[in-house]
Every structure is written in structure tokens, then in C-alpha cells.
Amino acid sequence: MSKICTLITGASSGIGQKIAIQLSKEKNIIISGRVFEKLNETLSLCSTENEVISWVFDLENILNLRDSLENLLKENDILVDSIVHCAGNMKVMHMRNMDYKSSLQLFNINFFSITEIIALLLKKKINHSQLKNIVFISAILGEFGAPGHHLYSASKAALDGLMRSLAVELAPEIRVNSVLPGGVKTPMSEKALNDTIILEKALKEYPLGIGDTEDIANMVEFLLSDKAKWITGQQFIVDGGRTINLSHK
């Protein structure tokens, strides 16, 4: 009998790692990342109550993505019922320094990789109509502008646009939603938050303070549950009130 699993991309660290740890307590999961050692660290932190399967793959390698995932599913006799797309790359640069290679690299990881994954898992001969739930980890930067973040913002806005269209196209069998985090304590944000000036500014901007990865994992867990069975096509901003704080726009 095939194993039913939830696929989590970007599970090597930060939000993706926390989601993997939390979901492993109740589901079989596939954790995806490009660095074997980091993925192994996530594996060691996951619950042993359910099966955790590692998929070491660089999502920038779009041309080989489908073959790699299909082989993983076949070799391990897996069907995927849920996807959480956490993988993301951020490049801060002025528009005048942008080039096609940088744009393509970021979009391959942040956007095109998940379109390839979903397209594969919608094939009946591959996944046998098992897919029921998709959650994108987007960002509030997909809704608002910031200097130097045009590529990242555009990729997240693209994710949310994809989410809305897929929610309509795939209903009622599959629900599709986005979670838009604000500032969260992760290895990626650690350096910035260690800067006293940046931290003080952030604490003024965020009415509820800086978030934890658990805050995002809790929302994802809810959206994957039956408690969210009448929710699709929605963007859930989880940002401690940052985007409604008009005094610090």
C-alpha cells in the first residue's frame, strides 16, 4: 500500500524546517532541500512517529525537477496529498544592477519550481488524484514595495496570482491558499535582527513584535486540516500587525 505524504519544500531551515518538525508529529512527510547536511539536521529534529523521507534537490535545476521527483515517488511508493511550498531565495539589488540570469535563478526557485511540482502531481498516473491541499509561503513583500526587493516581491506576487487561479481551477477536489509572513526570526533574518538599530525599528513597526517560525507553522497546520475545509483562494497575512500599522508605513 502506498504511503500518503505531505511534501515540504525549503525544509532545510527557518520556516520550512519548523513546518516539517510540526507536521511530522501527525503526517508522513517528504522534506526537500538542496544541501544534504542541512536536510539531515531537519530529519534529526522531526518526530519518529511517522515516516520522514528526504528529497535532496536544488529547485533551481528546473529541467530535471520532474524526473527527480517522479523517481523519488516511484522508488518509495509515495502518493502526495498536500504540498507546502516554503523554498525561496531573496536577492537585494538595485534595478540598474538586475540581469536576466539573476532573475531567472530567483524565479526558478521561488515560482517555477512549484508549478513543475504541481503539474506533475496532478497527473493521475503519477499521483492517482491524491492531491488535496496546496499552501504557498508567500510574503507581505508580494503586496507592498521595498527598495531593492523587486525580484523577490514580483516572485511572491506571482505565487499569489497562481494561488487564486489554481483555487478556482482545482476546486472542489483541491484547496489552494497562501500564507504571507512578516518579519520572522530565522537564520536568514538573524544577522539583521542582531543589529540594534534595525531591531528597535522593527519592534516599533510590529505591534505584536517579531514573529517566530512556529507562528507560520501553526497557520499552515490549520490550512491543511479539516477545520479549513471551506477555505480556498485566500491570502493569510501573518505579520504581527505590521501591514495595518499606519504610523510606520
Explain what this protein looks like in three dimensions.
- Helices cover 43% and strands 17% of the residues.
- It has one domain: NAD(P)-binding Rossmann-like Domain (Rossmann fold).
- The chain is built from 9 helices and 7 strands, in the order E-H-E-H-E-H-E-H-H-E-H-E-H-H-H-E.
- Helix 1 packs across helix 9 and helix 4 runs parallel beside helix 6.
- Helix 6 links the parallel strand 5 and strand 6.
- The longest helix has 22 residues.
- The protein is globular.
- The chain has 249 residues and is α/β, with parallel strands linked by helices.
For the structure shown, list the relevant keywords:
single chain; 249 residues; alpha/beta; Rossmann fold; seven-stranded parallel β-sheet; 17% strand
In short, what is this structure?
The protein is α/β, with parallel strands linked by helices and 249 residues long. The chain has 9 helices and 7 strands.
Give the strand content: 15-25%
Q: Portion of residues in helices?
A: 40-55%
CATH architecture: 3-Layer(aba) Sandwich
**Count of DSSP E strands?**
7
- What is the ordering of alpha helices and beta strands? EHEHEHEHHEHEHHHE
In the predicted model, the low-confidence regions spanning at least 5 consecutive residues are none
Ends distance:
53 Å
- Number of discrete domains: 1
